[in-house]
Amino acid sequence: MPMSQLLTALAGELTARLKQSGLIAATAESCTGGMAAQYMTSAAGASEVFECGIVSYANRIKVQELGVSEDTLARTGAVSRETALEMAEGVRARSASDLGLSTTGIAGPGGGTPEKPVGTVHIAACLGERSLHRQLALEGSRQEIREATVECLFRLALELLEGPERLEPQAVSSRLRVRRLREADTETVLALCSGNGLFYQYHPPKATRESVLQDLIALPPGKSLRDKYFLGCFDGESLAAVLDLVTDYPEKGTAYMGFFMVDSGLQGKGFGSALLEELAECLLAAGFEKIRLAIDEGNPQSEAFWSKNRFVKTGERIPNERAAYLLMERDL
C-alpha cells in the first residue's frame, strides 16, 4: 500500500519540530500496529529524534512493557483515556525519551460494542509533566481508521509542543458536520468538483485524484500543516462543501481562502452564502480581522458571488499562464 502523502508531511513537520527543540520521541501503539513509528522513521532526520516504538497489542504487553496498571485495564478497559495516558507515560519513561505518544482503539471491522463502537479511539501525548488526550469517533475502513488515528496523533503531538491550533473545524458551522478532509475522501471530493463544470471553464484543468491529494498538503511559503484547514462540510453523510483555508496568511490576522466549492445541487439557494457567514463569525471569534482570496479574471459568476458576500477587490492583479488572479478581501 502506498505511503500517505499527508501522514508523511505531518511526520516530517513533527520531526523538524522535535529536532529544533532537542527532544526525543517514542511511541506505544495498539490499534495502529506501529504505523506512527513507521511514518516517523520514514522522515529525514528521524534517527536524531526517535528512540523506539512499541506495538502493545495485547494487554499483557501493555502491562509488562509499558507499566499500564492491571487495575486500570480492569476498570476502564484497553480502549480508554486512562490506558492511553498510561501508555504514553510508560513508553516515555521506560525509553528515557522526552515525548511519549500512544494509540488504543477499535479499528474494526469487528470488536465494537454499543458503548465503544468501531472507530472509538483514544490517543495521548506526554511531555514531562504535561499531557494531552483525545477521544476520537472515526469512520471508514480499518485502514482508514488507522490512518486517521495517526494523523490525529501527530497533530496532538504538535499541539503539545506548540500550543493549540487557531481554529476548531467544527466551529465553522453549527448546521453542518465539519472536519478535515483526508486521502480517503478523495473520490467524494472529486464527485463534488465534477458537478461544477463552469468553475473549471475559467480555472482549468479539472480536478483529478492526484490534484486533490496534492491539495491536502499544498501550502504557501512559510506555513505549516497546522495552519492549513482543508475542510469538508457534511450535511448528514453527504459532502455539501469543500473549503481550503490557511490561517495568518499573508499576514497575521488574515485567513486566506484558497478554495471554496459547494455541491451543485445546493447552489442558487443561499447555501454557500450562509456557510460563509458562519465562517466569518467563526474567524472573528478566533481573532481574525479579514478573509482574503483570489478569483479568476474574467469569471463574472465568481466575481458576482464574492461581491454579493461583501468581498471587495484590493486592486492587486497576479498574472498567471491563462490571464490573472484578482485578489479580494472581506473585513470581519
Give a verbal description of the structure:
The protein is α+β, with helices and mostly antiparallel strands and 332 residues long. The chain is built from eleven helices and twelve strands. The strands form two sheets. The protein has a seven-stranded mixed sheet with strand order 6-7-8-9-10-12-11, with helices on both faces. Strands 2-1-3-4-5 form a five-stranded mixed sheet, with helices on both faces. Strand 7 and strand 8 form a beta hairpin. The longest helix is centred in the middle third of the chain and has 21 residues.
Poorly predicted runs of 5 or more residues: none
Compute the average pLDDT. 97
Largest sheet, strands/sense/barrel: 7 strands, mixed
> Total number of helical segments?
11
H/E element order = HEHEHHHEEEHEHHHEEEHEHEE
Quick overview:
The chain has 332 residues and is α+β, with helices and mostly antiparallel strands. It has helices spanning 5-21, 35-42, 59-66, 70-76, 81-94, 142-162, 186-194, 197-202, 209-215, 271-285, 300-308; strands at residues 25-29, 50-55, 99-105, 120-127, 130-137, 177-180, 228-235, 238-247, 254-262, 290-296, 312-319, 324-331.
